[in-house]
Amino acid sequence: MKYKDLTLDIEKRIARRKKHKVELRRKESEMLEILMRKNETTVSKIELAETIWDRNAEIVSNTIEAHMSTLRKKIDSGFKKKLIHTIPCAGYKLEEH
User: Fold this and answer.
1) Could you give the CA distance from residue 2 to residue 32 in angstroms, rounded to a whole number?
2) Which end of the chain has less Cβ packing within 10 Å, N or C?
3) How many CB atoms lie within 10 A of CB 34?
4) Could you give the strand order of the β-sheet that contains 20-23, starting from the edge strand earlier in sequence?
5) Nearest to residue 39, comparing CAs of 81, 97, 95?
6) Which residues contact 76 (CB under 8 A, 6 or more apart)?
7) What is the enclosing helix (H) or strand (E) of 9?
8) Based on the structure, what is the number of domains in the chain?
9) What is the CATH number of the domain that holds 40?
10) Got the DSSP string for 71-93?
């Protein structure tokens, strides 16, 4: 998958941003895949939870935020243009700015 200067190898769970290679954990890879498939559309926390976590799993209130924070650091750290953005009261979006 590709978005701007970011690519994701879903099977290997490896993201690349320009020449920077990032190994992702399973949940991080799944979250990034959803954001990339939605292509600049806001993805709600509920949608992420329902898609990634088992329906029987109990998700602590900040679980998604914690995973997204780690993912954002891995993808955006060291780059002027950020890709992963929090949309207040709505969710997250992959968009370059």
Assistant:
1) 11
2) C
3) 16
4) 2-3, 6-9, 14-17, 20-23
5) 95
6) 82, 83, 84
7) strand 6-9
8) 1
9) 1.10.10.10
10) HHHHHHTT-SS--EEEETTTEEE
> Which residue reads 């891995």 in tokens?
74
**CA distance between the termini of the chain:** 20
pLDDT digits (tens, 9 = 90+) for 32-83: 999 999 989 999 998 998 899 876 667 766 889 999 999 999 999 999 999 9
d(CA 16, CA 59): 29
- Asked whether the whole model's pTM tops 0.85, one would answer yes
By residue range, what is the domain housing residue 77?
A: 2-94
- pLDDT score of 11 more than 90: yes
